[in-house]
Please model this.
Amino acid sequence: MAGSQIQKLAFLAGILLILVNLGSSALHRIPVQRSPSFKRSHKMIVAERDFIQQKYTRQYTANGYPVEQLSNFDNFQYYGNISIGTPPQYFLVQFDTGSSNLWVPSSSCLSEACQDHQTYYGSESSTHVANGTAFSITYGTGSVTGYLSMDYVGFAGLIAKNQTFGEVTTEVGTNFVDAYFDGILGMGFPSLAVDGVTPTFQNMVNQGVVQSPVFSFFLRDNGSVVNYGGELILGGSDPSLYRGGLTYVDVIQAAYWKFQTDFIKIGSTLISTFDAAIADTGTSLIVAPVAEYTQIAQLFGADSEGTFQCTSLDSYPDLVITINGVDFRIQAKYYIIQENYLCSLAIQSISGQDFWIMGDVFLGRFYTEFDVGNQRLGFAPVNSAISARQLALWQIFTLALACGVWKLWY
Ligand SMILES: *[C@@H]1O[C@H](CO)[C@@H](O)[C@H](O)[C@H]1NC(C)=O
Ligand SMILES: *[C@@H]1O[C@H](CO)[C@@H](O)[C@H](O)[C@H]1NC(C)=O
Ligand SMILES: *[C@@H]1O[C@H](CO)[C@@H](O)[C@H](O)[C@H]1NC(C)=O
Ligand SMILES: *[C@@H]1O[C@H](CO)[C@@H](O)[C@H](O)[C@H]1NC(C)=O
Model:
Protein backbone atom coordinates (compact mmCIF):
# COMPACT_ATOMS: atom_id res chain seq x y z
CA MET A 1 0.00 0.00 0.00
CA ALA A 2 2.59 2.50 1.20
CA GLY A 3 4.93 1.18 -1.48
CA SER A 4 2.46 1.93 -4.25
CA GLN A 5 1.92 5.46 -2.86
CA ILE A 6 5.63 6.04 -3.08
CA GLN A 7 5.62 4.66 -6.63
CA LYS A 8 2.84 7.05 -7.60
CA LEU A 9 4.67 9.98 -6.06
CA ALA A 10 7.82 8.97 -7.83
CA PHE A 11 5.86 8.69 -11.07
CA LEU A 12 4.53 12.22 -10.67
CA ALA A 13 8.02 13.44 -9.92
CA GLY A 14 9.21 11.74 -13.12
CA ILE A 15 6.45 13.39 -15.17
CA LEU A 16 7.40 16.74 -13.66
CA LEU A 17 11.04 16.25 -14.63
CA ILE A 18 9.98 15.29 -18.17
CA LEU A 19 7.87 18.44 -18.36
CA VAL A 20 10.83 20.50 -17.17
CA ASN A 21 12.91 18.95 -19.94
CA LEU A 22 10.18 19.49 -22.54
CA GLY A 23 9.84 23.08 -21.37
CA SER A 24 13.45 23.70 -22.24
CA SER A 25 13.12 21.98 -25.64
CA ALA A 26 12.28 25.39 -27.11
CA LEU A 27 15.94 26.10 -26.45
CA HIS A 28 18.39 25.12 -29.16
CA ARG A 29 21.94 24.66 -28.04
CA ILE A 30 25.21 24.82 -29.81
CA PRO A 31 28.41 24.09 -27.93
CA VAL A 32 31.06 26.75 -28.33
CA GLN A 33 34.71 25.99 -27.90
CA ARG A 34 37.94 27.78 -27.35
CA SER A 35 41.11 27.61 -29.30
CA PRO A 36 43.11 24.59 -28.06
CA SER A 37 46.00 26.91 -27.29
CA PHE A 38 44.03 29.58 -25.45
CA LYS A 39 46.18 31.09 -22.73
CA ARG A 40 46.03 34.35 -20.91
CA SER A 41 49.40 36.01 -20.84
CA HIS A 42 50.75 39.53 -21.08
CA LYS A 43 51.72 38.98 -24.73
CA MET A 44 48.24 37.80 -25.64
CA ILE A 45 46.59 40.70 -23.83
CA VAL A 46 48.64 43.26 -25.77
CA ALA A 47 48.05 41.45 -29.08
CA GLU A 48 44.34 41.33 -28.44
CA ARG A 49 44.18 44.98 -27.38
CA ASP A 50 45.67 45.91 -30.75
CA PHE A 51 43.16 43.70 -32.55
CA ILE A 52 40.26 45.32 -30.68
CA GLN A 53 41.65 48.74 -31.59
CA GLN A 54 41.36 47.70 -35.23
CA LYS A 55 37.91 46.19 -34.87
CA TYR A 56 36.48 49.35 -33.33
CA THR A 57 38.30 51.90 -35.42
CA ARG A 58 36.37 52.10 -38.66
CA GLN A 59 38.27 54.86 -40.49
CA TYR A 60 41.65 53.62 -39.46
CA THR A 61 44.46 53.79 -41.99
CA ALA A 62 47.94 52.39 -41.66
CA ASN A 63 49.42 55.87 -42.08
CA GLY A 64 51.11 57.24 -39.00
CA TYR A 65 50.34 54.26 -36.86
CA PRO A 66 52.79 51.45 -36.26
CA VAL A 67 51.22 48.47 -37.97
CA GLU A 68 51.46 45.51 -35.71
CA GLN A 69 50.87 42.09 -37.15
CA LEU A 70 49.11 39.77 -34.80
CA SER A 71 50.90 36.54 -34.29
CA ASN A 72 47.90 34.50 -33.29
CA PHE A 73 44.21 34.46 -32.69
CA ASP A 74 44.09 32.16 -29.74
CA ASN A 75 42.20 34.60 -27.56
CA PHE A 76 39.27 35.24 -29.87
CA GLN A 77 38.07 32.06 -28.57
CA TYR A 78 34.44 31.21 -28.79
CA TYR A 79 33.53 29.51 -31.99
CA GLY A 80 31.21 26.76 -33.08
CA ASN A 81 30.15 24.63 -36.01
CA ILE A 82 27.58 25.88 -38.55
CA SER A 83 26.41 24.50 -41.88
CA ILE A 84 25.86 26.36 -45.13
CA GLY A 85 24.12 24.89 -48.16
CA THR A 86 22.39 21.68 -49.20
CA PRO A 87 23.92 19.17 -48.60
CA PRO A 88 25.56 20.94 -45.65
CA GLN A 89 29.10 22.29 -45.87
CA TYR A 90 30.52 22.81 -42.37
CA PHE A 91 32.39 25.84 -41.03
CA LEU A 92 33.77 26.88 -37.68
CA VAL A 93 32.68 30.45 -37.03
CA GLN A 94 33.21 32.89 -34.24
CA PHE A 95 29.85 33.97 -32.77
CA ASP A 96 30.43 37.69 -32.44
CA THR A 97 27.89 40.01 -30.81
CA GLY A 98 30.18 42.92 -31.76
CA SER A 99 29.43 42.69 -35.50
CA SER A 100 26.44 41.77 -37.68
CA ASN A 101 27.59 40.01 -40.86
CA LEU A 102 28.22 36.37 -41.63
CA TRP A 103 31.19 35.62 -43.84
CA VAL A 104 33.18 32.50 -44.74
CA PRO A 105 36.00 31.93 -47.24
CA SER A 106 34.94 31.25 -50.82
CA SER A 107 36.19 28.30 -52.88
CA SER A 108 37.44 30.92 -55.34
CA CYS A 109 39.65 32.58 -52.70
CA LEU A 110 43.36 32.20 -53.36
CA SER A 111 44.62 34.08 -50.27
CA GLU A 112 46.78 32.13 -47.87
CA ALA A 113 44.17 32.52 -45.10
CA CYS A 114 41.62 30.76 -47.30
CA GLN A 115 43.92 27.85 -48.17
CA ASP A 116 44.11 26.90 -44.49
CA HIS A 117 40.38 26.96 -43.93
CA GLN A 118 37.12 25.44 -45.08
CA THR A 119 35.84 27.17 -48.19
CA TYR A 120 32.30 27.46 -49.53
CA TYR A 121 31.40 25.87 -52.86
CA GLY A 122 28.19 27.52 -54.08
CA SER A 123 28.12 25.25 -57.13
CA GLU A 124 27.77 22.21 -54.87
CA SER A 125 24.74 23.51 -53.03
CA SER A 126 21.24 23.10 -54.47
CA THR A 127 19.97 25.99 -52.31
CA HIS A 128 22.69 28.46 -53.37
CA VAL A 129 21.45 31.68 -54.99
CA ALA A 130 23.98 34.10 -56.46
CA ASN A 131 23.82 37.76 -55.45
CA GLY A 132 27.16 39.22 -56.47
CA THR A 133 27.03 42.56 -54.58
CA ALA A 134 30.54 43.50 -53.43
CA PHE A 135 31.26 42.86 -49.77
CA SER A 136 34.10 44.23 -47.68
CA ILE A 137 34.91 44.49 -43.99
CA THR A 138 37.98 46.39 -42.88
CA TYR A 139 40.05 45.21 -39.94
CA GLY A 140 42.43 48.13 -39.54
CA THR A 141 45.58 46.69 -41.02
CA GLY A 142 43.69 44.56 -43.51
CA SER A 143 40.36 43.52 -44.85
CA VAL A 144 38.22 40.69 -46.08
CA THR A 145 36.55 41.33 -49.42
CA GLY A 146 34.39 39.32 -51.78
CA TYR A 147 30.77 39.23 -52.81
CA LEU A 148 27.42 38.34 -51.33
CA SER A 149 25.70 35.01 -51.86
CA MET A 150 22.57 33.45 -50.44
CA ASP A 151 22.03 29.96 -49.05
CA TYR A 152 20.59 27.97 -46.14
CA VAL A 153 22.53 28.45 -42.90
CA GLY A 154 22.08 26.06 -40.00
CA PHE A 155 23.25 25.90 -36.41
CA ALA A 156 21.91 24.58 -33.12
CA GLY A 157 19.54 22.40 -35.17
CA LEU A 158 17.79 25.40 -36.77
CA ILE A 159 17.97 26.61 -40.35
CA ALA A 160 17.77 30.16 -41.67
CA LYS A 161 16.67 29.88 -45.30
CA ASN A 162 17.93 32.34 -47.87
CA GLN A 163 20.59 33.84 -45.63
CA THR A 164 22.76 36.39 -47.39
CA PHE A 165 26.40 36.19 -46.39
CA GLY A 166 29.83 37.26 -47.56
CA GLU A 167 31.79 34.83 -49.71
CA VAL A 168 35.30 36.08 -49.06
CA THR A 169 37.64 35.92 -52.04
CA THR A 170 40.53 37.98 -50.63
CA GLU A 171 41.88 38.27 -47.12
CA VAL A 172 44.64 40.84 -46.97
CA GLY A 173 46.67 41.78 -43.92
CA THR A 174 44.20 40.36 -41.44
CA ASN A 175 46.25 37.42 -40.30
CA PHE A 176 43.19 35.22 -40.16
CA VAL A 177 45.70 32.67 -41.45
CA ASP A 178 46.31 31.52 -37.89
CA ALA A 179 42.69 31.62 -36.77
CA TYR A 180 41.06 28.37 -35.73
CA PHE A 181 37.75 29.56 -37.08
CA ASP A 182 36.94 29.87 -40.78
CA GLY A 183 34.65 32.87 -40.58
CA ILE A 184 32.55 35.10 -38.36
CA LEU A 185 28.83 35.00 -37.61
CA GLY A 186 27.76 38.44 -36.41
CA MET A 187 25.04 38.62 -33.77
CA GLY A 188 24.82 42.41 -33.45
CA PHE A 189 21.80 44.43 -34.61
CA PRO A 190 20.92 44.90 -38.34
CA SER A 191 22.01 48.58 -38.35
CA LEU A 192 25.62 47.43 -37.92
CA ALA A 193 25.50 45.10 -40.93
CA VAL A 194 27.58 45.86 -44.01
CA ASP A 195 25.49 46.04 -47.25
CA GLY A 196 22.24 46.10 -45.23
CA VAL A 197 22.21 42.31 -45.00
CA THR A 198 19.75 40.79 -42.51
CA PRO A 199 21.78 39.05 -39.76
CA THR A 200 21.32 35.28 -39.42
CA PHE A 201 19.53 35.25 -36.06
CA GLN A 202 17.20 38.03 -37.22
CA ASN A 203 16.42 35.91 -40.28
CA MET A 204 15.61 32.93 -38.04
CA VAL A 205 13.25 35.16 -36.05
CA ASN A 206 11.61 36.53 -39.22
CA GLN A 207 11.12 32.98 -40.56
CA GLY A 208 9.63 31.80 -37.27
CA VAL A 209 12.14 28.98 -36.79
CA VAL A 210 13.07 30.17 -33.31
CA GLN A 211 10.18 30.42 -30.86
CA SER A 212 11.41 33.45 -29.01
CA PRO A 213 13.64 36.27 -30.36
CA VAL A 214 16.23 35.70 -27.64
CA PHE A 215 19.64 34.07 -27.53
CA SER A 216 22.05 33.66 -24.66
CA PHE A 217 25.67 32.82 -23.97
CA PHE A 218 27.06 30.68 -21.21
CA LEU A 219 30.82 31.07 -21.49
CA ARG A 220 33.09 29.08 -19.26
CA ASP A 221 35.67 31.37 -17.81
CA ASN A 222 38.80 29.29 -17.81
CA GLY A 223 40.56 28.44 -21.01
CA SER A 224 41.95 25.02 -20.28
CA VAL A 225 38.80 23.30 -21.48
CA VAL A 226 39.06 22.78 -25.20
CA ASN A 227 35.86 21.07 -26.14
CA TYR A 228 33.40 22.72 -23.85
CA GLY A 229 33.88 26.47 -23.79
CA GLY A 230 30.23 26.93 -23.05
CA GLU A 231 26.99 27.15 -24.96
CA LEU A 232 25.18 29.48 -27.26
CA ILE A 233 21.46 28.96 -26.72
CA LEU A 234 18.89 30.10 -29.27
CA GLY A 235 15.33 30.82 -28.17
CA GLY A 236 15.86 31.79 -24.54
CA SER A 237 17.93 31.20 -21.43
CA ASP A 238 18.65 28.13 -19.34
CA PRO A 239 18.20 28.98 -15.62
CA SER A 240 20.26 25.94 -14.59
CA LEU A 241 23.33 27.72 -16.00
CA TYR A 242 23.09 30.79 -13.74
CA ARG A 243 22.38 31.69 -10.14
CA GLY A 244 19.41 33.85 -9.09
CA GLY A 245 17.39 35.91 -11.56
CA LEU A 246 18.58 37.87 -14.56
CA THR A 247 19.10 41.61 -14.09
CA TYR A 248 17.76 43.33 -17.20
CA VAL A 249 18.97 46.55 -18.73
CA ASP A 250 17.71 48.24 -21.91
CA VAL A 251 19.83 48.44 -25.03
CA ILE A 252 20.47 52.18 -25.50
CA GLN A 253 21.43 52.01 -29.17
CA ALA A 254 20.51 48.96 -31.23
CA ALA A 255 23.72 48.51 -33.23
CA TYR A 256 26.22 47.01 -30.80
CA TRP A 257 24.63 45.47 -27.70
CA LYS A 258 25.09 48.75 -25.83
CA PHE A 259 23.74 49.43 -22.35
CA GLN A 260 24.29 51.92 -19.56
CA THR A 261 26.16 51.08 -16.37
CA ASP A 262 25.32 52.90 -13.12
CA PHE A 263 28.81 52.84 -11.62
CA ILE A 264 32.09 51.12 -12.21
CA LYS A 265 34.42 50.85 -9.22
CA ILE A 266 37.64 49.18 -8.22
CA GLY A 267 36.86 48.23 -4.64
CA SER A 268 35.44 51.48 -3.26
CA THR A 269 37.21 53.77 -5.74
CA LEU A 270 34.73 55.23 -8.20
CA ILE A 271 35.98 54.97 -11.79
CA SER A 272 32.91 56.05 -13.73
CA THR A 273 29.25 57.00 -13.44
CA PHE A 274 26.69 56.26 -16.17
CA ASP A 275 29.26 55.07 -18.71
CA ALA A 276 27.94 53.08 -21.67
CA ALA A 277 29.21 49.55 -22.27
CA ILE A 278 28.73 46.87 -24.90
CA ALA A 279 28.55 43.10 -24.49
CA ASP A 280 30.97 41.63 -27.04
CA THR A 281 31.48 37.87 -27.29
CA GLY A 282 34.19 38.50 -29.88
CA THR A 283 36.50 40.08 -27.29
CA SER A 284 38.12 38.37 -24.33
CA LEU A 285 39.25 41.46 -22.41
CA ILE A 286 37.48 44.37 -20.77
CA VAL A 287 38.24 47.59 -22.63
CA ALA A 288 37.78 50.92 -20.86
CA PRO A 289 37.70 54.46 -22.27
CA VAL A 290 41.14 56.09 -22.03
CA ALA A 291 40.46 58.40 -19.04
CA GLU A 292 38.91 55.56 -17.03
CA TYR A 293 41.77 53.22 -17.94
CA THR A 294 44.33 55.83 -16.87
CA GLN A 295 42.68 56.09 -13.47
CA ILE A 296 42.67 52.30 -13.06
CA ALA A 297 46.29 51.99 -14.17
CA GLN A 298 47.29 54.64 -11.62
CA LEU A 299 45.56 52.70 -8.84
CA PHE A 300 47.72 49.67 -9.62
CA GLY A 301 50.84 51.61 -10.58
CA ALA A 302 50.57 49.94 -13.99
CA ASP A 303 52.31 51.08 -17.19
CA SER A 304 50.62 51.79 -20.52
CA GLU A 305 50.38 48.06 -21.25
CA GLY A 306 48.73 47.44 -17.89
CA THR A 307 51.73 45.73 -16.31
CA PHE A 308 52.89 46.05 -12.71
CA GLN A 309 54.90 44.17 -10.12
CA CYS A 310 52.88 41.97 -7.80
CA THR A 311 53.13 39.12 -5.34
CA SER A 312 49.68 37.84 -4.46
CA LEU A 313 46.37 38.72 -6.09
CA ASP A 314 44.44 38.18 -2.87
CA SER A 315 45.00 41.71 -1.62
CA TYR A 316 43.50 43.42 -4.67
CA PRO A 317 39.88 44.61 -4.61
CA ASP A 318 37.02 43.45 -6.82
CA LEU A 319 36.07 45.21 -10.00
CA VAL A 320 32.44 46.19 -9.39
CA ILE A 321 30.09 47.00 -12.25
CA THR A 322 26.68 48.21 -11.13
CA ILE A 323 23.95 47.56 -13.69
CA ASN A 324 20.36 48.60 -13.03
CA GLY A 325 21.09 48.83 -9.31
CA VAL A 326 22.76 45.42 -9.01
CA ASP A 327 26.49 44.95 -8.32
CA PHE A 328 28.36 42.55 -10.60
CA ARG A 329 31.65 41.76 -8.89
CA ILE A 330 34.72 40.37 -10.58
CA GLN A 331 37.50 39.17 -8.32
CA ALA A 332 41.08 40.30 -8.96
CA LYS A 333 42.14 36.80 -10.08
CA TYR A 334 39.77 37.13 -13.03
CA TYR A 335 40.76 40.61 -14.21
CA ILE A 336 44.49 40.40 -13.45
CA ILE A 337 46.80 37.86 -15.04
CA GLN A 338 49.77 36.88 -12.92
CA GLU A 339 52.96 35.51 -14.44
CA ASN A 340 55.46 35.09 -11.62
CA TYR A 341 55.91 38.58 -10.14
CA LEU A 342 54.56 40.34 -13.17
CA CYS A 343 50.88 41.18 -13.23
CA SER A 344 48.89 42.37 -16.25
CA LEU A 345 45.48 43.95 -16.17
CA ALA A 346 42.99 42.17 -18.43
CA ILE A 347 41.46 45.64 -18.64
CA GLN A 348 42.90 47.67 -21.49
CA SER A 349 42.02 50.80 -23.41
CA ILE A 350 41.89 51.77 -27.05
CA SER A 351 41.87 55.29 -28.38
CA GLY A 352 38.78 57.05 -29.66
CA GLN A 353 36.36 54.95 -27.67
CA ASP A 354 33.89 56.45 -25.19
CA PHE A 355 32.27 53.20 -24.08
CA TRP A 356 33.45 50.08 -22.28
CA ILE A 357 33.71 46.78 -24.12
CA MET A 358 32.76 43.86 -21.92
CA GLY A 359 34.43 40.76 -23.29
CA ASP A 360 35.05 37.37 -21.76
CA VAL A 361 36.53 38.70 -18.50
CA PHE A 362 33.00 39.94 -17.79
CA LEU A 363 30.86 37.56 -19.90
CA GLY A 364 32.72 34.52 -18.55
CA ARG A 365 31.54 35.45 -15.04
CA PHE A 366 27.99 36.42 -15.99
CA TYR A 367 25.53 34.48 -18.07
CA THR A 368 24.20 36.89 -20.67
CA GLU A 369 20.82 36.92 -22.36
CA PHE A 370 20.56 38.92 -25.59
CA ASP A 371 16.88 39.76 -25.97
CA VAL A 372 16.42 40.94 -29.54
CA GLY A 373 12.63 41.32 -29.23
CA ASN A 374 12.67 43.61 -26.19
CA GLN A 375 16.05 45.15 -27.03
CA ARG A 376 17.47 44.43 -23.62
CA LEU A 377 20.26 42.44 -21.99
CA GLY A 378 19.96 40.18 -18.95
CA PHE A 379 22.89 39.26 -16.69
CA ALA A 380 23.29 36.78 -13.83
CA PRO A 381 26.29 35.11 -12.17
CA VAL A 382 27.17 31.86 -13.95
CA ASN A 383 26.48 28.64 -12.13
CA SER A 384 30.11 27.61 -11.99
CA ALA A 385 29.18 24.19 -10.60
CA ILE A 386 27.94 23.25 -14.07
CA SER A 387 30.20 21.42 -16.45
CA ALA A 388 29.41 19.76 -19.75
CA ARG A 389 29.54 16.36 -18.19
CA GLN A 390 27.22 17.41 -15.39
CA LEU A 391 24.76 18.79 -17.91
CA ALA A 392 24.70 15.55 -19.83
CA LEU A 393 24.48 13.49 -16.63
CA TRP A 394 21.56 15.58 -15.41
CA GLN A 395 19.69 14.88 -18.63
CA ILE A 396 20.50 11.18 -18.51
CA PHE A 397 19.49 11.09 -14.85
CA THR A 398 16.16 12.75 -15.62
CA LEU A 399 15.43 10.33 -18.44
CA ALA A 400 16.51 7.30 -16.45
CA LEU A 401 14.43 8.36 -13.47
CA ALA A 402 11.39 8.96 -15.65
CA CYS A 403 11.80 5.63 -17.46
CA GLY A 404 12.45 3.76 -14.22
CA VAL A 405 9.40 5.22 -12.60
CA TRP A 406 7.31 4.40 -15.62
CA LYS A 407 8.38 0.77 -15.26
CA LEU A 408 7.44 0.78 -11.57
CA TRP A 409 3.93 1.94 -12.41
CA TYR A 410 3.22 -1.27 -14.30
C1 LIG B 1 30.75 20.00 -37.78
O1 LIG B 1 29.59 19.16 -37.66
C2 LIG B 1 29.55 18.11 -38.64
C3 LIG B 1 28.23 17.38 -38.48
O2 LIG B 1 28.00 16.98 -37.18
C4 LIG B 1 30.75 17.20 -38.49
O3 LIG B 1 30.75 16.21 -39.49
C5 LIG B 1 32.04 18.03 -38.61
O4 LIG B 1 33.17 17.23 -38.37
C6 LIG B 1 32.02 19.18 -37.62
N1 LIG B 1 33.19 20.02 -37.86
C7 LIG B 1 34.05 20.35 -36.89
C8 LIG B 1 35.26 21.11 -37.33
O5 LIG B 1 33.87 20.08 -35.72
C1 LIG C 1 14.19 31.50 -50.88
O1 LIG C 1 14.60 31.86 -52.18
C2 LIG C 1 14.02 31.06 -53.17
C3 LIG C 1 14.67 31.40 -54.51
O2 LIG C 1 14.95 32.76 -54.61
C4 LIG C 1 12.50 31.31 -53.15
O3 LIG C 1 11.88 30.52 -54.14
C5 LIG C 1 11.96 30.97 -51.79
O4 LIG C 1 10.58 31.31 -51.69
C6 LIG C 1 12.70 31.71 -50.69
N1 LIG C 1 12.29 31.19 -49.41
C7 LIG C 1 12.10 31.97 -48.33
C8 LIG C 1 11.72 31.27 -47.06
O5 LIG C 1 12.26 33.17 -48.36
C1 LIG D 1 21.96 41.16 -52.64
O1 LIG D 1 21.77 41.25 -51.23
C2 LIG D 1 21.48 42.53 -50.75
C3 LIG D 1 21.45 42.48 -49.23
O2 LIG D 1 20.57 41.49 -48.75
C4 LIG D 1 20.15 43.00 -51.34
O3 LIG D 1 19.86 44.29 -50.89
C5 LIG D 1 20.24 42.98 -52.85
O4 LIG D 1 18.97 43.27 -53.39
C6 LIG D 1 20.70 41.61 -53.33
N1 LIG D 1 20.94 41.68 -54.78
C7 LIG D 1 20.56 40.71 -55.63
C8 LIG D 1 20.95 40.91 -57.04
O5 LIG D 1 19.94 39.72 -55.24
C1 LIG E 1 42.47 28.52 -14.77
O1 LIG E 1 43.00 27.21 -14.95
C2 LIG E 1 44.37 27.11 -14.60
C3 LIG E 1 44.85 25.72 -14.96
O2 LIG E 1 43.82 24.86 -15.33
C4 LIG E 1 44.52 27.41 -13.11
O3 LIG E 1 45.89 27.34 -12.74
C5 LIG E 1 44.01 28.84 -12.83
O4 LIG E 1 44.04 29.11 -11.46
C6 LIG E 1 42.58 28.99 -13.32
N1 LIG E 1 42.20 30.38 -13.20
C7 LIG E 1 41.08 30.78 -12.63
C8 LIG E 1 40.89 32.26 -12.59
O5 LIG E 1 40.25 30.02 -12.15
